[in-house]
């Protein structure tokens, strides 16, 4: 699941980002409305989280601009304000849900997953490549009749590869979609997780679905290997 978090409170946003990443989500962060709007226009997100009071462009205006351009991505507003008028305005601009700071991380995660299931963009309920299947909502992976246990990050990598099955994806694309645009670590982390996945979804079954395309990136066979 890929989330856009737009909040000018840097420390709070960083804490929320780390909490969501621990749940296996990919999180891009912007600290003002204009940057948030630019990211939303350039990338596909499952849910957009908007603070209301921000410099440059407030959350209401960001949401209004997105809806005016036909972007139906679910929007959840975060704010320290708790008046009934604010909630009405947020929902009237096209928002889908509302949380007041401070909030429970567990409740935020549950709300985001519920909004993602409801969806704005049509997304496949089940991702398949031959007999390899991933259910994003249930967070369940099976090969044939065998259930496979993956970590949250492995699940995110496989989710991205299945959505692009049959295509060559670059290491940079994997990082941007799984670790986020702001990732500053070693890009070879992708190779590590590809290795983890091969040991779990391929080798025990005598398959070779995950292919390294030398000098370019990786490809997950559309037939499951």
Characterise the protein shown here.
One of its GO terms (biological process) is regulation of DNA-templated transcription. Residues 2-116 form the Response regulatory domain. There is one protein chain. This protein is of the alpha/beta class. The protein has 2 domains: 2-119, Rossmann fold; 127-220, Arc Repressor Mutant, subunit A (Orthogonal Bundle), CATH 1.10.10. It has 8 helices and 12 strands. The protein has helices at 10-22, 33-42, 59-68, 84-92, 105-118, 152-163, 171-178, 189-202; strands spanning 2-6, 26-30, 47-51, 75-79, 97-100, 127-129, 132-135, 140-143, 146-148, 168-170, 210-213, 217-220. The protein has a 5-stranded parallel sheet, sandwiched between helices. A 4-stranded antiparallel sheet has the order 6-7-8-9, with helices on one face. A hairpin with a 4-residue loop joins strand 7 (132-135) and strand 8. The chain starts with a strand and ends in a 5-residue tail after the last strand. The model has no long low-confidence stretch (mean pLDDT 86).
């Amino acid at each position: 699941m890929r989330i856009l978090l737009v909040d000018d409170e840097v420390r709070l946003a960083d804490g929320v980002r780390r909490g969501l990443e621990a749940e296996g989500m990919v999180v891009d962060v912007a600290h003002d409305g204009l940057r948030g709007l630019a990211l939303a226009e350039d990338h596909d997100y499952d849910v957009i989280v908007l603070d209301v009071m921000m410099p440059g462009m407030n959350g209401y205006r960001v949401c209004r601009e997105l809806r005016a351009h036909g972007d139906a991505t679910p929007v959840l507003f975060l704010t320290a304000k708790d008046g009934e008028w604010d909630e009405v305005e947020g929902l009237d601009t096209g928002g889908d849900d509302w949380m007041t700071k401070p909030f429970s991380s567990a409740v935020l995660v549950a709300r985001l997953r519920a909004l993602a299931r409801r969806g704005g963009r049509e997304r496949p309920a089940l991702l398949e490549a031959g007999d390899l299947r991933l259910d994003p909502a249930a967070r369940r992976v099976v090969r044939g009749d065998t259930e496979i246990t993956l970590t949250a990050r492995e699940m995110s990598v496989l989710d991205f590869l299945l959505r692009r099955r049959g295509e060559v994806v670059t290491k940079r694309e994997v990082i941007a979609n799984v670790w986020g645009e702001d990732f500053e670590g070693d890009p070879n982390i992708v190779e590590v997780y590809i290795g983890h996945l091969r040991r779990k979804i391929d080798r025990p079954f005598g398959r070779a679905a995950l292919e390294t395309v030398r000098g370019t990136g990786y490809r997950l066979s559309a037939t499951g290997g």
